[in-house]
Amino acid sequence: MKESPNPPAERNASRVTAQDVAREAGVSLSAVSRVFTPGASVSAKMRVRVMAAADKLGYQPNVLARSLMTQRTNLVGVILANFKNPIYLTVLDHFTRTLQARGLRTLLLNVSEGQDLEEMARLVLQYSVDGLVVSAGAISPHITEQCQKRRIPLVAFARRPRRANLHVVCADNVAGGRVAGDRLLQSRHRRFGFMGGPSGASTTIDRGKGFHAAVEEAGHAVIAATHASEYTYSAGTESARKLLDRADRPDAVFCANDLLAMALMDVARGEFGLTLPDDLSIIGFDDVDLAAASTYRLTTLRQPLEAMVHETVDILSQRITTWSEGWETRQLACTAVDRDSIAFDRAD
Fold first, then answer.
1. Residues of the chain with pLDDT under 50
2. What CATH number is given to the structural domain containing 262?
3. Where in the numbering of this chain does the HTH lacI-type domain appear (predicted)?
4. Do 29 and 131 share a structural domain?
5. Does 206 lie in the same domain as 282?
6. Do the Cβ atoms of 240 and 268 come closer than 8 Å?
7. Are 49 and 34 in contact (CB under 8 A)?
8. Given this model, what pLDDT does residue 11 score?
9. Most CB atoms within 10 A, among 9, 62, 180, 304?
């Protein structure tokens, strides 16, 4: 098969233009523009007519050229971390579908172990994104300042940084911790424990705060707490061993996410010979798919991920269109999902 050079200059010269489509369809250039602009007002008849001409000529709009004219790329940077946690795959699915429905596209960056969040943020900003979502690590002042200077709306997703000058969309983790405490208070166990993720993570702090408050207001105490190095199953197994190896071993434990809870359940049964939930009541947080499996049947708190993503995209869409320095925080309620991992006191 004979190959021939295909330099960029020749490719660009042979491209069909919007003007060619307008001529073929017998419509104005502005009509073609409206058809290919997400959300623009155009009749179904006009859309069919223009698309038929575009298909016949093999026309595709030049997104890069349009972005130069409009100063909009329709790109939203999404920085995530810890894909060992399946909840982030669900989050990514919701983001891509919701952004696409608004005529926006996702530019995904994964902050792997050892990588610097600020470096990733600088990289994504090089693509002239119209908005930025961060659900990974601590957001530095440099990131918030750069976004503010460029009028790029920045949303912290599923976490509540202690920093100003950014939007926040997350579950109400303090209230969720309280619900976890209330559920365990209904069990027949009274030695309460907490198994958190990284000690400095806002999710660990807030969920633990709500849990401690619920237990202490009921006249009890949280007698033991451990923190896993990350929100993963493997880190959870190490933390579970420390918690269960104590002389004052707790028998009612709130785990700050489901992977930690599953690790605790497996270590309790496999290494300590405990019967669940008779010897140990456990509640998790997130409601990942595996939580419902017969192996675990984990009682947990479900984060409203789809609603959280919609709220995030709503903020982005508003602020991309009309910039404002009024920062919003939207917290959504979690829902308790009762299964079989708590030994409820049937006498109550």
1. 6, 9-13, 68, 348
2. 3.40.50.2300
3. 16-70
4. no
5. yes
6. yes
7. no
8. 43
9. 180
